[in-house]
């Protein structure tokens, strides 16, 4: 476990220059934790550059991707995207939560998620949702610490190498002050 003070970790928006390191980090997350994500490592590996540019989520209004960085190295990521139809535009989802193994246990995921929640508040999102495999105790703990509450379980949400995985569905409602 490193003793790096948390102040030396920067949480920031992605920039176009992050693309290669971001792709590497995301592919590592998908390869090392196949049950943690809906996306598949082998499929992601074959995606064109345009796909990765989209995932970088530079467009502020609909989505944002945040990175944790230490000494120029990307050590974690978390994204948020809002739904875009007239009837679900009030809601958003947390995606791609990942922290490198050597940096875990320092609440970096919490810092990333809270940054996403700040983005949600700024963009007047009313409810933020996420899905997490029921056995992923450390992720669930992070989400609960950020205020997410369980509202259901999606049975057999993922099917990986012949095994089905249930996902817990969690949500956090954002209370906005009433406009005059
Ligand atoms: C889930 C994940 C993002 C949590 O990141 P993190 O920054 O380590 O989160 P936290 O520091 O808040 O730790 C959460 C819990 O993990 C456990 N934990 C503590 N140290 C840990 C370590 N070194 N390694 C793994 N888990 C640890 C603890 O229970 C901790 O909660 P606590 O501090 O209240 O006791 C990270 O483990 C990860 O990237 N996992 C693989 C990908 C994944 O599962 N993503 C989530 C998809 S829904």
Write structural notes for this entry.
The longest helix has 15 residues, at 108-122. The chain has a domain at 6-126: Aminopeptidase (3-Layer(aba) Sandwich). It has a seven-stranded mixed sheet with strand order 1-2-3-4-5-7-6, sandwiched between helices. It has helices at residues 19-32, 41-45, 49-56, 108-122, 137-145, and strands spanning 10-13, 63-70, 73-82, 91-99, 127-133, 149-160, 163-173. Strand 3 (73-82) and strand 4 form a beta hairpin. With 180 residues, the protein is of the alpha+beta class. The structure holds coenzyme A. Coenzyme A binds at residues 29, 33, 36, 97-99, 104-110, 132, 136, 138-139, 141-142.
Quick gist of this model?
With 180 residues, the protein is α+β, with helices and mostly antiparallel strands.
The CATH class of the domain at 6-126 is identified as Alpha Beta
Overall helicity: 25-40%
How many strand segments? 7
- Compute the separation of the termini in Å: 50 Å
Strand content: 25-35%
Overall average residue pLDDT: 94
**Rg from Cα:** 16 Å
What's the tally of helices? 5
Q: Can you tell me the CATH superfamily of the domain at 6-126?
A: Gcn5-related N-acetyltransferase (GNAT)
CATH architecture of the domain at 6-126: 3-Layer(aba) Sandwich
Largest sheet: 7 strands, mixed
Instruction: Briefly note the structural class of the backbone.
Output: alpha+beta
């Amino acid at each position: 476990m490193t003793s790096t003070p948390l102040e030396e970790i920067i949480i920031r928006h992605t920039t176009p220059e992050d693309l290669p390191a971001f792709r590497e980090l995301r592919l590592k997350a998908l390869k090392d934790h196949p049950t943690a994500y809906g996306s598949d490592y082998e499929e992601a590996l074959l995606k064109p550059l345009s796909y990765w540019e989209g995932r970088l989520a530079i467009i502020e209004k609909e989505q944002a991707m945040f990175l944790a960085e230490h000494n120029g190295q990307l050590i974690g990521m978390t994204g948020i995207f809002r739904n875009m139809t007239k009837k679900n535009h009030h809601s958003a989802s947390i995606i791609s939560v990942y922290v490198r193994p050597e940096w875990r246990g320092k609440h970096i995921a919490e810092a990333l998620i809270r940054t996403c929640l700040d983005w949600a508040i700024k963009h007047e999102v009313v409810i933020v949702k996420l899905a997490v495999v029921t056995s992923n105790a450390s992720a669930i703990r992070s989400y609960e610490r950020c205020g997410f509450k369980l509202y259901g379980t999606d049975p057999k949400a993922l099917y990986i190498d012949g095994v089905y995985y249930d996902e817990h569905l969690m949500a956090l409602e954002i209370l906005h002050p009433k406009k005059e």
